[in-house]
Amino acid sequence: RAKEGCREGYCFFEPALNQKVRHRLELENRLRTALQKEEFLVCYQPKIDLASLRTVGVEALVRWRRPGVGLISPGEFIPVAEETGLIIPLGRWVLRQACQQAQRWREQGRQLSVAVNLSPRQLLDPDLTRAVAEALEESGLPPEQLELEITENAVMPSLELALGRLAELAALGARLAMDDFGRGYSSLYHLHRLPIDILKVDQYFIKEMTPHSRVSSIVEAMVAMGRSMGLVVVAEGVENKRHLEMLAGMGCHQLQGFLFSRPLEPPRLEDYLAREEAASGPPWLGASRRQ
Ligand code: C2E
Ligand code: MG
Ligand code: MG
Ligand code: MG
């Protein structure tokens, strides 16, 4: 019985650890089959331009629809996909889906940029640039409509390698975004070295922000820094109107968060955009104007 926990010459005799390892292996196998069976889906969350209060882009966020279980959030399976390398085929699938969907919307007359997340392992993949070029080509999406989001964790293992990869991606014409800014390490150093176009302020800071607080000073400084570097500054995790008002005062460019919408499947996102059009802004704005 104890032998069951043996892998590559290591044995786990401790029952709790054994169970953990088994659980992980199980999840890995389930992910592998899920990929073959196409059990994944991509949801899209609007990014709103602060000046016009209109949706100007979306972020593609993957989910796993597990039969008999329901929707599983990426936080639960992306780390395992990352560890096992399954993130490479999964990431490619998301990229292709996102480019095709954005192009479909363009053909319907909706000019939306689409942002796709890249994990550390994807960034190190030597085939990434070719995969991105292929996704653009086969969809027909103009490269400048594609944004690739990276975190500082992705560039940490090898900055030189990451710099090379990002230069290749930039040469394709895609835009590069620094995601979760402020939460990683040596942020300013990376901000200075990486060829990014967009700065996404981590949602932690937005959520913690109250007027005249230290956190709001930090957000204000991040927005000002991004602006003066010529970057498009996006606030993530915008949940209420007070956040919106504070960020407007700071000169933030774009907003993303539950105040506007959760990530939605394409037909629901189209419903959202239709309501936004009818209200000439976010749906709740129409309601408050009528009051
Ligand atoms: P992220 O790229 O920072 O994406 C933003 C996350 O914040 C999303 O969670 C979104 O649903 C959530 N969010 C947006 N607005 C709000 C808000 O107002 N309040 C709160 N509480 N949350 C908000 P989600 O979809 O669960 O994704 C979590 C993370 O998983 C993403 O963080 C990203 O790092 C990763 N991820 C998602 N899809 C992919 C993918 O296709 N590839 C890779 N490599 N990573 C992905
Ligand atoms: Mg992101
Ligand atoms: Mg983020
Ligand atoms: Mg993240």
TrEMBL record:
All copies of domain EAL, residue ranges: 24-277
Coiled coil: none
Transmembrane segments: none
Top-level division of the source organism's lineage: Bacteria
Name the record gives this protein: Diguanylate cyclase/phosphodiesterase with PAS/PAC sensor(S)
Range of the intact protein held here: 413 to 703 of 703
